[in-house]
Design brief:
This protein is of the alpha/beta class. The chain is about 35% helix and about 25% strand. It is an enzyme of class 3 (hydrolase).
Length: about 280
């Protein structure tokens, strides 16, 4: 399909009501920063009645800190769709079967004992929990979790988990097979070079998109989405105007309808700037 600049034909004239963007590798640069040029675009979208939604595997509380400079309230798709927040209130959430949580805890421990550099974060609505003492892993965990607590035994954390995040210090895609037989019908996605995320059955970023589309009266034809990794696939399917970052995972490049410049080139900002200008 031909394009004018960065925009596919028809997008400038479309009735856009919802813009959904992944964070790491998409909106954020490689230092984890929002481009400064994004903030005036966010104000412009808000003034026009276009809802901008961060959609991430990150914890909600971390996302809220990133967007604290924005004076208004945003909706958030957090924990890869396991938590959907609107106006500071929980709009939707989903829980993992406790037996799956227990099996993942045991599998990570066994793999670590066998010499694999695997670690686990158990995410609940109110925060995240680790039991590892490894400083390198703790640094990564704190980067993504504003609310993080160390516990002696993850299997004894009360309440249901909304997400299980497995960190592989080497290569997450090679470790996913360890969990295939124990997750059952739960959703498992490789969400980055080092991360595997497990969520409840049928739960992914697109379930959050669907909830917010209903809330704002939008369909796929009114939705723009940006992503770069495997946990973004369903989200991109939920938007007629789906953009893969040019440096995205090959499967994401294949699945999305259009391409944006890389996150290092502030590709999300570039596309949105042209859209709002036209």
């Amino acid at each position: 399909m031909t394009q004018r600049g960065l925009l596919p034909d028809g997008l400038a004239a479309a009735d856009i009501r919802l813009v959904v963007s992944d964070m790491d590798g998409t909106l954020l640069d490689d230092a984890g920063r929002v481009p400064e040029a994004f903030w005036p675009l966010l104000a412009d979208m808000t003034a026009r009645g276009i809802a901008f939604v961060p959609a991430s595997g990150r914890q909600y509380y971390t996302l809220a800190e990133i967007f604290a400079p924005h004076p208004g309230s945003l909706s958030y798709i957090a924990e890869n769709g396991s938590m959907v927040m609107h106006d500071g209130e929980l709009l939707a959430s989903s829980n993992i079967d406790p037996s799956v949580t227990a099996a993942v805890v045991d599998t990570v421990r066994a793999a670590a004992a066998a010499g694999r550099r695997l670690y686990l974060i158990v995410h609940r609505i109110d925060g995240a929990f680790i039991e590892s003492e490894d400083d390198h892993f703790i640094g990564h965990a704190r980067h993504y979790c504003a609310r993080l607590e160390h516990v002696a035994d993850q299997s004894e954390i009360p309440g249901d988990a909304v997400k299980l995040a497995i960190f592989d210090a080497d290569d997450a895609e090679t470790s996913a097979a360890l969990f295939t037989s124990i997750v059952g019908d739960h959703k498992m996605a490789v969400s980055g070079h080092h991360w595997i995320d497990i969520t409840a059955p049928g739960t992914h970023k697109a379930t959050g998109v669907a909830a917010l589309q209903e809330l704002v009266g939008a369909g796929p034809e009114n939705t723009v989405a940006f992503g770069d990794y495997l946990n973004d696939l369903e989200m991109l399917d939920a938007a007629e105007w789906s953009f893969a970052m040019s440096n995205a995972h090959p499967e994401v490049l294949e699945r999305a309808r259009y391409r944006a410049p890389t996150n290092l080139e502030a590709g999300v900002v570039a596309v949105l700037a042209q859209l709002l200008e036209e």
